[in-house]
Design goal:
Two copies of one chain form a homodimer. Chain A contains twelve helices and eight strands. With 313 residues, the first copy, chain A, is an alpha/beta fold. Chain A folds into two domains: 259 residues, Aldolase class I (TIM Barrel); 35 residues, no CATH class. The longest helix of chain A is centred in the first third of the chain and has 14 residues. The first copy, chain A, is globular.
């Protein structure tokens, strides 16, 4: 019943850190790591790979950098079946700051880019591959990219050596037919590449869109514990694991960490489905205005937010 | 882009009342009613139609009975385009307690039944039709009905005069392929009937399953404001209206009532996605054990609940 080729990637710390500047305690990160190991999850994306000069350590926590000494404090030598990933943003990491994979605890680097950065993303991705990493390119905000630009980007990636390419619903504005169309387009334009899915939950469709992506042949599935992530959050890892029939995955370790660390965090961080996130998702807008609203005293004035965002009634 | 034949049915008060014994203030119910009118929603299901002797008015609020005088206090003569519906459970309403439609503010009666009650449901439905009501039959808990029993029930309904039949995911255990299979089966077995969808959100799939049902030709769509409903709640009315492209629907009045009445209720009632509801949904179990757990002091001990429910890890 299950597909052996499916890989589940937890990005709780990486995407969730967008809500708290990666200010997670070591206990928190270690609990997520242990849960992923025990649950049989394939990859854990533990943060971003950034150069020290790009961000201030007084503002952002260690998972914005993913230095080896920080990783080692959590995972030791990582003598487990769980692979570790970090995301790299174009312009935030210098090539010389990326260690050889043989000297790093990281197994995979995922290069995030906007459509105008695809050539730079391919360059960075090739560099990482040459250093021994597994590599993907994650094209963000594709719901706002016009057809001409997207076709050109896909053609460039098709010609590259990069083996994995992600369908990313950054704004949580896609529904099943959008995902179906996009994944079919990706597969047709880039034969032989593996396709991944990264969904956001603005319209409570992240889990369903991930199922649609599976049905269309996606093999890399992003998810986070209790959906922890930017704005409305992500596809829930615990729902995904409950859905997948692969006997290697186990739900109980995930529930333990949700119970101990993730659920209590809801007191401090307002990720998940909230009306302002629905509004930006339905309008195919970046969630930043909704996040700003949710941080203000007017967070529960949904009508004012919608009026501010758009004149549709 | 939109389908004219689609009807949206709000069941906020009826399904939400399962969480608080229909103890809503008149202000609350009036706000939902006004929102539905202003938003262009087609039906509002305001409660259950029950005989007085079936329930104690000291325990349940007026929307368990939907007496004309209670309705009139909220809706006046209901000189609007919004139609009013009530749900009738088999055995909870005596035929003689149902007024003629011409003497009632109700436009529609939806007969809820389990598979062994289908013959009684058809009898009650015909009775209501003969009294002048629009009528549907809503077969609950179909995810636990075996194929032989379901085929027989569908054949009986196909032969009846009842024009509308609902696909009901009582346990929130269905995903898109389940809904697709079920709706196709219903349409094939009952040509000429309209099909409705009533989804629950245990696996955060209620909205997606409603979209799938639309794609399969369902025309009656149930939803509630902010998903208020039993356990994990229902398909969110505000997401559905944001999704539908029919220009007659308006989102802003729904957000106003969510802001004023529904969102504040989250302090008192724990509907919506919570891990215990995921567990019962994934196991295709009635949510009652999860609701009981959520009412206990151990509500956030997710691991203990899952261990109690099942030995799968």
């Amino acid at each position: 019943m299950y597909r052996k080729e499916i890989k589940v990637l937890d990005c709780t710390v990486r995407d969730g850190g967008l809500m708290n500047n990666w200010q997670f305690s070591d206990d928190f990160v270690r609990s997520v790591y242990n849960a992923c190991v025990e649950a049989g999850v394939d990859y854990m994306e533990i943060g971003y790979l950034s150069s020290e000069k790009a961000f201030d350590r007084n503002v952002v926590g260690p998972w914005k950098f993913c230095k080896d000494e920080d990783l080692r404090r959590i995972v030791g030598d990582n003598n487990t079946s769980l692979k570790l990933s970090a995301m790299a943003d174009i312009g935030r990491i210098d090539l010389e700051d990326i260690p050889m994979a043989s000297e790093s605890l990281l197994d995979m680097i995922r290069v995030a880019c906007y459509v105008h950065q695809v050539d730079k993303a391919i360059e960075l991705a090739h560099h990482c591959m040459d250093k021994g990493y597994e590599v993907s390119i994650n094209l963000m905000a594709v719901s706002t990219v016009n057809e001409r630009d997207l076709d050109e980007a896909l053609a460039d990636i098709a010609k590259s050596r990069v083996p994995i390419f992600y369908a990313v619903d950054s704004y949580g504005s896609m529904y099943n037919e959008t995902v179906q169309h996009l994944v079919r387009k990706y597969k047709a334009a880039m034969p032989g590449k593996e396709i991944g899915i990264h969904a956001h939950n603005n319209m409570q469709l992240a889990m369903a869109n991930t199922i649609t992506a599976i049905q269309e042949g996606c093999t890399y599935l992003d998810a986070t514990l209790l959906g922890l992530g930017r704005g409305a959050g992500n596809c829930h890892l615990e729902i995904l694991v409950a859905f997948l029939k692969n006997p290697k995955y186990r739900l109980l370790p995930l529930l333990q960490t949700i119970q101990d660390h993730i659920h209590p965090l809801q007191k401090d961080i307002d990720w998940g489905y909230h009306i302002p996130y629905l509004v930006t998702g339905a309008l195919n807008e970046h969630p930043r205005s909704a996040m700003k609203w949710m941080d203000s005293e007017r967070k529960n004035d949904f009508v004012a937010f919608m009026k501010e965002m758009h004149d549709y009634q």
